[in-house]
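User: We ran a pulldown and think these components assemble together. Before we commit to crystallization trials, I'd like a predicted model of the whole complex to look at. Sequences follow.
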Amino acid sequence: MLEEQRPSLAPTFGYLMLGSLFWAVHLLVVYAAHTLICALASSPTASSLTVVALTAILALPVAFVLLNQRRTGRWFGISDELPDRKTYDAISRFIGLLSLAGILWAGVAAAIVSSCATGR
Amino acid sequence: MAVDRELPNSLPRPEGELEALERAWALPKGFRLITAVNNQAIGIIYIGVALLFFILAGILGLIIRTQLAVPGNNLVGQDFYNQLFTMHGTTMMFLFAVPVVEALGVLLLPQMLAARDLPFPRLSAFAMWAYVVGGLVFFSTILYDLAPKGGWFMYPPLTLSEFSPGNNADFWLLGIGFIEISAIAGAIEIIVGTLRTRPPGMTLARMPIFAWAMLIFAAMIMIAFPAVILATMMLEIERAFGWPFFSAGKGGDPLLWQHLFWFFGHPEVYIIFLPAAGLVSMIVPAMAQHRLVGYRLIVVALIATGFFSFGLWVHHMFTTGIPSLSLGFFSAASMAVAIPSGIQVFSWIATIAAGRKPFRITSASLFVLGFLFIFTVGGLTGVMVALVPVDFQVHDTYFVVAHFHYVLIGGMVFPLFATLYYWIPMISRNMLSERLGRWVFWLMFIGFNLAFFPMHIAGLLGMPRRVWTYPGDLGWNSYNMASTVGAYILAAGVALFVIDLFRRFRPTMSGGVENPWSAGTLEWLPSDAYATRSIPFVTSREPLWDQPSLAREVNEGRHFLPGAPTGGRETIVTSAVDALPQYVIRMPGPGWSPLIASLGMAGFFLLLTVKLVVPALISGVVFIVAVLVWAWSLDHDANVPAVDIGAGIRLPVYMAGPVSHSWWAMTVLILVASSLYLAYVFSYFYLWVVSPDVWPPEGSPALPHIFWPGIIGLLILGGTVLLLFARRILPAPGSTSRAFPFVVALAMACFLVALTGEIWGHWASGLRPADNAYATMVYMACFLNLQVITGCVFLAGFTIARYFTGKLDKERRVNFESTALLTYYAAAQFLLGLVIIHVFPRVAI
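Assistant: Here's a predicted model for the assembly, 965 residues in total across the polymer chains.
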């Protein structure tokens, strides 16, 4: 019954939602960086390169987590002995996969559309 | 007879145990029933009122359809038509869809978690009454030609006072802000309830899907609603005082409203849909008599949908002139969100297919199947409008109207009707009629598709939304007539349902129909006003299927907390992840304060809208007094011995610190406040990007000298340190600490002086809030700090009063902790604001 023996909520949810958090950070930074570069520097090339770089930077850790799921779980304090460990691993893994797809899918836009031209 | 397992409590139960439980949880009688706070009572009234708003908004929809049935119609005038569609959308979204979902949470969550109630019953009552009073007054504006007419998303500049004079838009802004406060109160309740009042053994991985959905729903409310609260505050301030947040002439930008509104507005769709999907995930396994296929994937889908939904808001703004690459990001996210939605659809189909017996076709299952069809169609047209070129073509046409009605009615109303048919037996002596239920379904299904499918074609033919009439030679006539006929058939289905409801629904807390669907989840345990006789120990996701004797054991009082050991209302608080018992929470019983507080708050907002300042202030005082009376009774005596809940477990009945539910509630409230402040930070930088020319040094008076914010920052840090010191000198039980109230008061004084200094510094520099967008953002930061610091000062005053009445000491310290937590947050917000306001303009390019 001692509190310190129990898995705590924030790390558990952090582990479950890790991929989504990276996805959210990716959307935030590519949108903000691209908007700022276009508004202040009017440089489509710099804008596109920044988006590609940010996409790579944020996709790599998600891929790393996917390849090292259990180790990442332990970093978040999810003990191997926890009865629901497999469930948490599976949820975290699938969310990571979806998020990686989301990051790459959004990043690909930099290769397809012109960066600073207004859409309409 | 099955051999009994080793259970937490043994038979026979002590004499009088059940009677004590019944006494503690008894409902008030007669007219005092309105003071009830039991979740079943609150939930039933809450759902009833939400359905009333659904019908009222539906009637407005029928008037709209009647007006549009034929070209050149003049059944209603143009101005009233504008009020009709604004109120139809606003009522459906704000007064029906979100509240009904919260109401279902209040009603169903404690039953599914076998908790005796949610942890803050009076907060539930307050949220419900605030919604009822505010909602009814707001809706009644349509009767007096006072209803807003700027559309449910109220875009400026149309809604600025120059173009929308009168009080109509103010009713929307203040009314909606008020209803959102109610929604946030409900969300806090749901988050803490779901995470902390689950039965022992119900780990996160064993939670019912509906509980997962409600958890994510409430978290989304915490993040999304503050954005629109900030937006409504800013628009109301601009209308009332001329601070130019949205006026382009002074550096503001109308598109800022769209960003803030849709950062709320698009997640709102999923805020409505996710709980509905959660309900479907509960109904399908019961009807298929098979465990949900892909439980983990459904959890993945819920979490991913919750996240992705915050990356879609710009798809409502594709035609506003945003750079192409940004459109690409949001188009990608809009398509990506279809994947988790698809996961859920396939999971439900797989569960239906996996059942050993044929899927039972009941009224509830028909509505689920109807939902699957309609929502899938809506999802497909959603992918279409996520494509930027398609969106350019169909933007603001009836194609979009068709799309979102397929998503919202398919994704929310059909599951809601399934829910009503499925769960009414839990709270009624009778089930609803299955025969009439089929009629209701087919009328609604056929009527819906006839009403809304032709709108796709009308939209593709170019019919714009929100036109009050149209010429007869554009090829739209037959589609509009079909839509109108369909709308009336849909309404007939709803009317038949209402008739059946009046005929068959007989609310009860103790004599519900016994598990008519042979479902596996805890809400079908025998229950009474006190919920279940004892709180079960749970070992799987479908306890009633895996522990066949559970209902009998629970009803005999053989599981946890079978009585009322302190003589009052209690439930078990468990740890958030693995659901181990931690302490017993004592909860308040019936009382007038939530009702009076909601009336006071409604009076304050609504009287302020019509500029009756003195009555509004009196209402505000009524609200504050009612809240003080309510809060005074919450922090119980800490010196009560631990109680035995069974299995040799003795739990404390008082808890302070990070384990306590009040600490969690304050933390959630702080997250809401920080979401609001982040929305402000976004707005500040957005306006700077749009209009850097109004920022200092060129566009505005020079900032106060850098020493000025330095001194203010030191004052804030000083106040924080004083509060940390106050924690150390809290008196031991039975003793006093003369310095304590002085130190707390001094800490608050530091904050007030700092705030006054910050405002004075800008005022003395010659900056006035109505000057330009920069000035508005500077003073808005002060206003947001004023809000939080006012809360801290009230809480501090309350804490000092508790100290002087001997109700605060080192053990009994929940009030102080709440004050301290909020004050630490206020300090962080203030310091961040100082950096943004005083440092950023100095270093910006």
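Chain B touches chain A through 47 residues (CB under 8 Å). That may be worth checking against your pulldown data before setting up trials.

User: Thanks, that helps.
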